[in-house]
Give the backbone structure.
Amino acid sequence: MGKVGLRSLAVFFAALFVATMWPVYPLVSRVRPFLFGLPFSLVYVLGLSLVAFVALLWYDWQTPNDDAS
Amino acid sequence: MAPWIIVLLVTVGYLAASLVVGLLSGRSASRGTEGYVAGDRQLGFVVLYFVLGASIFSAFSFLGGPGWAYSRGAAAFYIISYTSLGLVPMYFFGPRVARLGRRFGYVTQAELFAHRYHSRYISAVLAAISLIAFVPYLMLQMRGAGYVFSVVTEGRMPVWAGAGVTYGVVLLYVFRSGVMGVAWTNTFQGILMMALAWGLGLYLPRALHGGIGPMFEQIAEAAPAMLAAPGLDAAGAPWTWGGYSSAIAISVFGFSVWPHYFMKIYTAESIATLRKTVVFYPTFAFFLLPILLIGFSGVLAFPGVTPVDTILPTIVTSLGLPAVVVGLFCAGALAASMSSGDAIVHAAGAVAIKDGCRTLIHPSISDADETRLIRWTVVAIGAVAYYFAIYSEVSLVLLLLLSYGFIAQIFPALIAALYWRRSTPTGVIAGLAAGCLVTIAWNLVPAWQWQLVHPGVWGLGANVIVLVAGSLATEPMDPAHVETFVP
């Protein structure tokens, strides 16, 4: 993956960081619809956490053990 | 047997188990500073995962998290956001820091900065910032532990005695076993806390409302403002997006550079282990979900509970649960306090001696003397924090606000150290000083508040400007030396 891949990952997480707060989160912060019994505003936050985990897992799986600094 | 005695026995049993695990685990590390502070750089994935994860289950999250959800609703969602993203920066800088640590023998955060910038003053500044930030957190954990014992014994055991017993156990295993004691007790405590959090988080909504879905439906009808971010402020009025967003920002920037987290980079057995630990860390956000469910379950069932941080013990002791279950809850609350407190007091001892005493006063101290000094400093810092936790009237709220604001100021300095060749010691020290001063000023002058933005955010702005300007205005460092840190 190299430096380009790592920079792309950094940009991706910067976008994810912004998605957790103003001005993105207010666009989707609403009570309904309920999903899995949870309000949508909470499902959205949990969804971003899942995306963060899957993105890191996928990147790490693609990356050889001896680089990434 | 009276129920409170059964509860107390379960709680004391947990403390005894923690002590045994903590004392036995120290046998596997060498006797020098590298063994006591960095565990001989041999921690594997599971232990490292729980060491970093259990620290997030502090007294704040185990008692304060439900309190936030109970009183401020969706404002508490920020805790999930910063937990899922807080350690991600370590995926980028962690491997480089770990390699430098192995190559040059670092065990503390400031050793990296002092070497990078050839400056013992940076080491002293970082030691001061770390200790100022550590002590209020340690005080909070101690007060939490004392409160748990007071509840367990129905007021028969005062807060000072409960905090004293709990932190007597913590100091014993940290003194004896160092980071290995912290690591293995955190693994034990982390598993206990997760089981309890999910058990209570699923049981309470069902017992009080018929399930999680019905619970949120009822809250949506009665108090819809509780379920949409940014939720409510401490007074029950709508919170601002500035307050919500800056709480996430300051937490994410500060999270990975807290010295007791950062120092765990040096304990990983390999770069792959460190990376895998960071990869799996966002899963802890899902372990915090039940903590919030517990708080939401009390919104309609237990209105008007004050202080709000007592909502969890209030619910648990009001439902007529078996004494053993109540005892396990108390053990979980103690585990939350101890799993953060032990890591903090251990790191504080190492920082005070390695970055303060050794750098400024006694550079030629032997490894054995240094380790001995760190052990006794752990005890001394624990005693000072205990004194202030029990006898001081100082406002913890202000100190905690300052703590995170201060720690976040280390983030720009770290990025500059590892990624900006042109940064200089003068620029970094001036940036840190400017950031901390602005954070203090914005805390002390309410008229300067805007949209309830966290004061540390203004500090970060000042820090970055002064760091860049100060570095560009001073002589660049030797490129050959900088190449080691910024390849």
Observations:
- Chain B touches chain A through 47 residues (CB under 8 Å).
- Chain B is about 75% helix and 0% strand.
